[in-house]
Amino acid sequence: MIISPSVLSLDYSRMAEQMSELNASGAEWIHFDVMDGHFVPNLTFGPDLLKAFRKMSSLVLDVHLMVTDPGFFSDVFLKAGADVITFHYEAMGSPDEIRSLAKHIREQGALAGISVKPGTDVSVLYPFLEDFDLFLIMSVEPGFGGQSFMMSAVDKIAALREKLNEAGLHAHIEVDGGINAETGRLVKDAGADVLVAGSYVFKNNIKEAVNSLV
Ligand code: DX5
Ligand code: ZN
């Protein structure tokens, strides 16, 4: 399992200390939630903060764009050092637009990801199985940390993993929202291989929490 702690829940008054704990925790990725105050009713981080994470860590920078204009912000965060860029299906228009942004992200040397909110059927992703390196299933309504896991994510993950297997593809399935040791086990059994966890990691001992998810 790849663990991607969400720095939405990091204590920024103790940033250096928490980052050195995170770097030594066994987590391989860092999940960076970009919210524009429009696609979701919350506002978070810009590219300069991502550059600071690049200086503080060699972990993979996993950028989750919760924005109305993924085309614009993909370039902004690619330039700032993102290794993975995931945008929302719900923010996009035609299939051509979705494929061309995925292609552009890959051409810049990053992994391309697409995400669906809890109310979006997972089958909307099936036409794009070859176009993405990562599929992010939201298990809470995007916008805030600390919400409870929605069980409907489990069936979505299982269905998507089956489709990928049928197609002979090995893309990542990432899950985001309400992940702890118990829900982490459920989604792992369903076929997820990247777990995002914010409050669970940063409100506990970071290393112990990460180890309980692996
Ligand atoms: C929510 C964000 C998540 C958030 C998860 O919109 O996308 O990454 O940090 O937080 P927890 O793990 O606390 O549910
Ligand atoms: Zn996220």
Task: Record keyword descriptors for this entry.
single chain, 214 residues, alpha/beta, eight-stranded parallel β-sheet, 37% helix, 20% strand, binds D-xylitol-5-phosphate, binds zinc ion
Task: Please describe what this structure looks like.
- It is built from eight helices and eight strands; from the N terminus they run βαβαβαβαββαβαβαα.
- The protein is an alpha/beta fold and 214 residues long.
- The longest helix is centred in the last third of the chain and has 15 residues, at 152-166.
- Strands 1-8-7-6-5-4-3-2 form an eight-stranded parallel β-sheet.
- It has helices at 15-23, 47-56, 70-79, 95-107, 152-166, 181-190, 199-202, 206-213; strands at 2-5, 29-35, 60-66, 84-88, 111-116, 134-138, 172-176, 194-197.
- 37% of the residues lie in helices and 20% in strands.
- It starts with a strand and ends with a helix.
- Helix 5 (152-166) packs parallel to helix 6 (181-190).
- The structure holds D-xylitol-5-phosphate and zinc ion.
- Residues 6, 31, 33, 64, 176, 196 line the site of zinc ion (ZN).
- Zinc ion binds at residues 6, 31, 33, 64, 176, 196.
